[in-house]
TrEMBL record:
Pfam families, per database record: Glycos_transf_2
Keywords: Glycosyltransferase, Transferase
InterPro entries per the UniProt record, alphabetical: Glyco_trans_2-like, Nucleotide-diphossugar_trans
Organism for this UniProt entry: Sinomonas terrae
Pathway named in the protein's UniProt entry: Cell wall biogenesis; cell wall polysaccharide biosynthesis
Name of this protein: Glycosyltransferase
Family membership noted in the UniProt record: Belongs to the glycosyltransferase 2 family.
Domain Glycosyltransferase 2-like, chain residue ranges per copy: 11-172
Length: 328
């Protein structure tokens, strides 16, 4: 009989930047410590906040507490964690995303296949004040959660969700980690760093796969302020700009294929569903929901157009400098 492969080891990286999420962060750490598939290592990376680092060092046990040694921001903090990880796999959790007890157990299952580079799971929103009537489930990506329209069973996808993802550590090292020019910096709602690194990883090794496993669940806390239309539109604008940055790096076709399918198939159903609630149930929230979907699409598109303009302007400015450098 062939030897049974050993189960892979996992390092879990939790990035945090603010004392305001202290209680949430403690719950996240405890949820990892209680996994049915134990993590070999728990790394809590503090993003340039000495007071938070000191409090964690004084309070938390059975976890490695470190400070971000790279540029400020989520990508830099994640790269710090990857550099210190000692396991075959590296899983990432946000500091406000509590893992279900069998989270790691579901993630590691797919790594029996050597062609699987990354596995992500489902992020379910936990609304501080309840889901707003205008906030369709199709838009849950705005708050870093899985949206309606994603696969309901384990499937190959383009990219994982940042709040709930894992990678082979050697893959992360091979591609140079997360791009520090992308991703959230403090409260600035930029993103797409997980999209970019998944695309970059599969480009480097053709035939490999990224898997989404909805059974691997984390519960992602959503403060009331992120349910407002103002936040939805600001996040949508930033998403458009981020997608423009990624398309410049890895190509428009690779970056926007999933988005085109989402716009063609998922959003029309959300609009029709909201209008149906308004017409047949006399529910004004349905009309607001349909309007919010249209507004989010418009702001995301506008952000993308603006992002492309910024990318092209930067290229035009830097081109003469690159020419001078080559001549020198």
């Amino acid at each position: 009989m062939p030897p049974v492969p050993e189960s892979p080891t996992v390092s879990v990286v939790i990035c945090s930047y603010t004392m305001e999420r202290w209680d949430l962060l403690v719950n996240v750490i405890e949820s990892v410590q209680a996994q049915t598939y134990p993590a070999q290592q728990i790394l809590v990376v503090v993003d340039h906040n000495p007071d938070l680092y000191k409090r964690l060092m004084e309070t938390v046990r059975d976890a490695v507490i470190v400070e971000n040694s790279g540029p400020q921001g989520l990508s830099g903090a994640r790269n710090t964690g990857v550099g210190l990880a000692t396991s075959e796999l590296v899983a990432f959790l946000d500091d406000d995303a509590e893992a279900a007890p069998d989270w790691l157990e579901h993630l590691v299952t797919f790594y029996d296949d050597p062609d699987v580079l990354a596995v992500g799971g489902r992020a379910e929103p936990v609304w501080e004040a309840g889901r707003p009537a205008h906030f369709a489930e199709e838009l849950d990506w705005i708050v870093g959660c899985s949206h309606r329209g994603l696969p309901r069973v384990a499937s190959e996808v383009r990219n994982v969700i940042g709040a709930n993802m894992s990678f082979r550590r050697d893959v992360l090292l091979q591609v140079g980690g997360f791009n520090v020019a992308l991703g959230r910096q403090g409260s600035v709602p930029l993103g797409c760093e997980e999209t970019e690194i998944c695309i970059r990883s599969t480009i480097g090794t053709p035939g490999t796969r990224v898997v989404y496993e909805p059974a691997a669940v984390v519960h992602h806390f959503v403060p009331a302020a992120r349910g407002t239309l103002r936040y939805m539109l600001a996040r949508s604008w930033s998403e458009g700009i981020s997608k423009a940055q990624v398309s410049q790096l890895v190509g428009q076709k690779r970056t926007l294929g999933a988005e085109r399918r989402y716009v063609r198939r998922v959003l029309p159903r959300a609009v029709l569903s909201g209008l149906g609630e308004w017409v047949f149930e006399r529910n004004l929230g349905g009309l607001r929901k349909a309007g919010a979907v249209v507004a989010v699409l418009a702001f995301t598109t506008a952000g993308y157009v603006r992002g492309r303009q910024l990318v092209h302007a930067e290229a035009e400015v830097s081109a003469p400098l690159r020419a001078q450098w080559r001549e020198a």
